[in-house]
Amino acid sequence: MICFSDNTIQSIFCCCCCCSLQKRQMKTQISLSRDEEVSEEYSPRARQWFCELQSKKKSNRGHIQPSKRKPLPPLPPSVVVEEKIKVKALYDFAPREPCNLALKRAEEYLIVEKYNPHWWKARDHLGNEGLIPSNYVTENKLTNLEIYEWYHRNITRNQAECLLRQESKEGAFIVRDSRHLGSYTISVFIKARSTEEATIKHYQIKKNESGQWYVAEKHFFPSIPELIWYHQHNAAGLMTRLRHPVGFMGNCLPATAGFSYEKWEIDPSELTFAKEIGSGQFGVVHLGQWRTHIQVAIKAISEGSMSEEDFIDEAKVMTKLSHSRLVQLYGVCIQRKPLYIVTEYMENGCLLDYLRERKGKLKKEMLLSMCQDVCEGMEYLERSCFIHRDLAARNCLVSSTSIVKISDFGMTRYVLDDEYISSSGAKFPVKWSPPEVFHFNKFSSKSDVWSFGVLMWEIFTEGKMPFENKSNSQVVEAISKGFRLYHPRLAPMSIYKIMYSCWHEKPKGRPTFAELLQVLTEIAETW
Ligand code: ADP
Q: Which residue in 135, 194, 366, 462 is a FRET match for 222, CA 20 to 30 A apart?
């Protein structure tokens, strides 16, 4: 249920040279209900199959030691798929455990059982069965767009443009999801003409009253694949026909929720260390490999910096948070000290450094795309009822394809340093915190929304420090009096309005991430 309200808010805008009092009329929407978690019925059959495999694994691979600290958690129930679903592999998957089944891209498999949302039992055409990561397959039916090479579900307008410019071929195209606007868009590369530079056209796919899809008037189709097929052969109103479908960005495989089913504990002997890549609150971070073929980041936790027992309990849950805009937690090594936290490796490092190093070089479309990436990941955390508590550019990382992902979610709960935990401590992120956090330590998805506004500000100032010349106590005083961060030069008014809406003094007055995502997508489509 969505509630709409109109508020008038008095605020003082602070910019480098002047302070001005402004009244603003804000329309806010408050979501009163959450998406209900889908509850599924499970059967014991999967447990039996898995236990058999586990015992086979133990006898085959004596070197894998079960944890000495605690017995393995009980196996969760799984869903028996009554009507077998046919899926198509989107990527190759090499088995990591005896219980896994290999996947070959574009081949068909049957889903026999859903162990949890991330790991399913599949059968190949030879009758072999095993567990596969669910994000490596998609339902194989002609109406499912994901089976087509040209379809990209999770890509911003700016990312689509970068991909097509890399290809640089007349008629190179993709179809992308404008899910939050309830439609689809064809993005197509048009080569330079004698008088015009190369350009990318975005055509929205629309639906008429009788449910037929069209791009150009007069050409209607019952499905999107049929529409695309037609325009692959006829320009019919487009600037060029759709000549070259462009597939996935790079060849990188998506991260899986843990290395395998229920595998949150990692054997340290399976890790190799390549080089040091950074250090932070908890210790030094290394680039390394798991079983010599999966690149990972390994954080070695310094003695006394973390409440380790509590974190280990939570890590089992956190490995199951899996989204393309979150840095995946693969698992932890708990057999000996130091404790290692193993995550997805992000080639372009920390977002704050990335912004500062590229000052003046990033176009505003790219900056907006970064905000969309973070907002997507945060919308997933909001839906999963998981609070980040320390969202900031320093806690986001950038992939090799310049996608921004959220890192360190929920981790402040395990910090042992008082200077970081107490809101009066020198390391407490006051400049990213709303009043209910710095006064009462009251965290919520809405306090994350406030931080997201500050993160947008960091992005559009190319990595400036918020409230640069103010101490933490001065910031508390300023915010309480109604001061807000100034309008960054690179941010159009529409963008500043969004960050400003995140800084409503009352949590209820701030938008949800789902609402923010919709507004950001709308802006991206009109630039
Ligand atoms: P902490 O949580 O201990 O404060 P951080 O997560 O901030 O540590 O990591 C410190 C630095 O290490 C980051 O700023 C970044 O440069 C690097 N780093 C951390 N995790 C990764 C990763 N997954 N991929 C690439 N670099 C990383």
A: 135
Domain that holds residue 127: 81-139
Which atom of ligand 1 is closest in space to residue 407's alpha carbon? 6
pLDDT attached to residue 80: 67
The tally of CA atoms less than 13 A away on the side-chain side of residue 268 is 12
* CATH code where residue 438 lies: 1.10.510.10
Lowest mean pLDDT among 57-61, 410-414, 475-479: 57-61
Domain boundary among 344, 377, 399: 344
pTM: 0.82
Cα dihedral across residues 228, 231, 232, 237: positive or negative: negative
Stretch 300-306: mean pLDDT, rounded?
Answer: 92
Q: How many domains does the chain have?
A: 4
For ligand 1, atom 17: residue with the closest CA: 278
Q: Give the residue numbers marked as catalytic.
A: 390
Cβ-contact 186, 209 below 8 angstroms: no
pLDDT at 74: 53
Alpha carbon of 468 to ligand 1 centroid (Å): 23
177 and 231 share one domain: yes
Residue 39 has pLDDT above 70, yes or no: no
Within a domain: 25: no
3 state DSSP class of 175: strand
* Atom number, ligand 1, closest to the C-alpha of residue 283: 3
72 Cβ contact list (under 8 Å, min separation 6): 66, 262
377 occurs within a structural domain: yes
- Closest C-alpha to ligand 1, atom 7: 280
User: Both 129 and 171 in a single domain?
Assistant: no
In this structure, is residue 4 part of a structural domain? no
Q: Ligand 1: list residues with CB < 6 Å.
A: 277-283, 285, 297, 327, 343-346, 349-350, 397, 407-408
pLDDT of residue 41: 34
Same domain, 125 and 169: no
Average of per-residue pLDDT values in the chain: 85
Cα-to-centroid distance, 69 and ligand 1 (Å): 27
Q: How far is the CA of 303 from the centre of ligand 1 (A)?
A: 18
CATH of the domain at 193: 3.30.505.10
